[in-house]
Design goal:
Layout (H helix, E strand, L loop, with lengths): L1 H14 L4 H17 L13 H22 L5 E9 L6 E6 H9 L3 H13 L6 E2 L7 H9 L6 H21 L12 E7 L4 H12 L2 H8 L5
Parallel strand pairs: 1-4
Antiparallel strand pairs: 1-2, 2-3
Amino acid sequence: MSRIHTLTTLRRCAAQGMPFGKAVAARKGELQKKSAQNFLADNQESAMNWQKLESTALIIVKKTLQDLSVEHPDEHFYACALYTDSSAMTMAVAVNSVEALEVKLEEEGKEEREELMPYYKWVSSEWKYQAWKGEYFKDICEALRVANERSDISSFKENLNSLMTDVLNTLRKDGVFRFFKVQEPILFVTVTDDDGAERLENKTAEMLNSSEKYEYFLRRFDG
C-alpha cells in the first residue's frame, strides 16, 4: 500500500512539473513526518509523547545490544552509554570492549598510550561501537527534531536525559546485559560536544551502577 502511495505521489508531482529528484525528496519528507508522528501526543500537534517514546526506545536499544552481542560474541564489553547531541536532536547507543580499546591503543606510540588510555577508554566518541545500528533510531531522532517542546530546550533536554537513564536502568533490571561476557558493564548517559557531558555522566552513572563501580568510574580520568 505504501509503495502504491509513493508511486501516486511521484506521478502527481510529475504532473505538476516537479523534477523527479525533488518529488522523491518530497515523498521522503512525508514519510519521515509520518514516522515522527508515532511519538507525538494525540491532543496536541507536535507535542511529544514521552511515555510512548520511552517504550519504543526500550525495544530498540534492547535489540541493538542483542545484535551487538550476536555479531561480536567473543568481545568483553566493559561500558555502555546512551547519548544525544548538544541540541537534543538525536539518540544513539555507544558501547566499547576491552579488545577494541587494546586495538586502538596499539595504533598509538608506546609513550602516548598511557596518557591516552583514560580518554580512549571512557570518551564514548572514541569507542568502536559508537552509534551502533544507528539506523534503528531514525524515527526517534526525527521525532526529537520536530517536537514542539523544543521551545523550552532546557526542560526538553532534561526529559530526554531522564528517558535514556530510565531505559538503561530497565534493561539492567531485566537482565539484558547477560548477553555480554561482562554481565555488569558500567552504564551512563552522555552528550556529545557539550561542556556538561562529564557532569551528566557522573550523575547518571551513580543512578545506574553499584556504589563500587560508580566510585571507580568517578576516578576514570585521574592520573
